[in-house]
Structures are given as C-alpha cells and as structure tokens.
Amino acid sequence: MANFIKFLGTAGARIVVARQLRSSAGIWLSLDGSNIYIDPGPGALAKCFAARPKLDPMDLDAILLSHNHLDHAGDVNAMIEAMTLGGHKKKGTVFAPISAFEGDPIILKYVRKYLDKTTVLKEKGKYKVGSVSFETPVKHVHGIETFGFKFKGKGATLSYISDTRFFDDMHRYYKSDILIISVLKDKPSNLDHLCVDDVEKILKEIRPKTAILTHFGRFMLDAGPEKMAARLSRDCNTRVIAARDGMTFKF
After folding, report:
1. pLDDT (tens digit per residue) in 179-211
2. Which residue pairs from 16-20 have beta carbons closer than 8 angstroms and sit at least 24 positions apart in sequence?
3. For the segment 203-224, what is each residue's pLDDT rounded down to a tens digit?
4. Measured distance CA(29)–CA(102) in Å, rounded
5. Which residues pair with 132 in a beta bridge?
6. Which of 6, 50, 108, 159 is least enclosed by beta carbons within 10 angstroms?
7. Where are the domains of the chain?
8. Which of 3, 216, 135 is nearest to 226 (CA)?
9. HSE of 179 in the Cβ direction (CA atoms, 13 Å)?
C-alpha cells in the first residue's frame, strides 16, 4: 500500500491564483489506505482527472479545509459532488473551520447532505479518517480562523503548516518526519504569511527528515523556489524540496 503526497497545485496569494501562474488545486494525501484532499482551491477537480495517473475523487475518504479563503477552498463544492458521484453515493467527511459552514459559507448547504458527515475543526482537536489520526494543534495567525494539520500514520508522521504569520513556539506543534510548509514570500513582510527566514527558524527546531515548500506567491516565484529550497537545505542541514505542480512525493 503506497503512501504518497500529490501536489496538484502550488500557488499562493491572489495574483498567482488569479493569473494561474501556478495551479491552485491543493494537495492529495494517500496515507495507510485513506485518501484525503487538503485545501481544494480553484481547479482541483480538473487537475485530479488531468493527473497521471488519474486521481478519481470517488476514492476520497475526506476533504480538509485549513481555512475559508478561495485559494484553499474554491473547488470544495465541486470536489464534494465528485467524491459522492453527484450525491448518488453518500460518503465521506468534510473537516473545516466553522466559518466554512456559517455566515457567508463556502460549503454550500445542498451538497452537505451528500456527505456522511461534516466536522467543525477546533484548536487542539483530534480526528480520524480510517486508520489515520490527525490533529489541529494550534490556531494560526491569519485574520480568519485557520489551522494546520498533523497526521499520524502507521510508519510516519506528517505535518502541514497552512497560511499564518510566524509565532513563537510554532515548531512545538508540528514536529514530524515530513513537513509541508506554505511559504508565500522570499523576504519578510507585514502579511500574515510565512517567508523563507521564518521557515529557516522552524526547520532548525523541528529537523524533519524532509521538508516540502509550497503555496508560493509572486515574489517567491521570482526568487526561485528551488533556489530557496537549496539554501535552506544547506543552512538547516535538512532535505528541503520545492514542490512543483503535479509532483508526487512517495514515502
């Protein structure tokens, strides 16, 4: 049973997404027989069927939204319909913060009945998808309720740090073998997003076996994600990879 992460999209920030300088389709995680879609942004459904080999949304067990922004959740309703064959096969769970379900909800009410259930994410929450357990260890600093995820499989731990401003002790919450980090910019800014210098601090504390950078903004693309990954690998003595659209990482 192969474990893999498929990066169907590596775009971050409005301009990169709006211009599709990189795909914004998010991440497919296959772990211990469970298939989980993380942050299905615009284009997620199309990229599943364009993947080689093709990824069938009906194989999904769950969809996770880190937060209620379009670049992370724009295709969530299309993915729910595809996962459930347009509602003809009731199945799966969607995990998301409360803002995805209330107020100006991004998850439409009519598709919710197609699911086995919906689950509201909370700080320090613990959840299961099949044999995979995961947690949302801490709220992020991002202007809207946002969470990262820490997964525990049979033979590996994996963390995903979604959008956030850097905060003290972040490393304590995401210690894992494989670390996926959303890094918007090459240099510090006032945005609620991580930059390369923030990632360096995190990696020097966590020391994962492999770190994978994704969710790149325009300035990060101009600086060269592969160049930034090589610098971090050298300075942090850690294997660091810059994700590419369509990249599969097996573990």
Report:
1. 999 999 999 999 999 999 999 999 999 999 999
2. 16/216, 16/217, 16/218, 16/221, 17/41, 17/42, 17/70, 17/71
3. 999 999 999 999 999 999 999 9
4. 27
5. 129
6. 108
7. 4-245
8. 216
9. 26
Which tokens sit at 1? 């049973």
| Residues shown for the chain | 251
Read out DSSP for the chain? Answer: ---EEEES--B-SHHHHHHTSS----EEEEETTEEEEE---TTHHHHHHHSSS---GGG--EEE-SSS-HHHHTTHHHHHHHHTTTTTS---EEEE-GGGTSSS-SS-HHHHTTSSEEEE--TTEEEEETTEEEEE-SB--SSS--B-EEEE-SS-EEEEE-S----TTHHHH---SEEEEE--BSS--SSSS-BHHHHHHHHHHH--SEEEEE-B-HHHHHH-HHHHHHHHHHHHTSEEEE--TTEEEE-
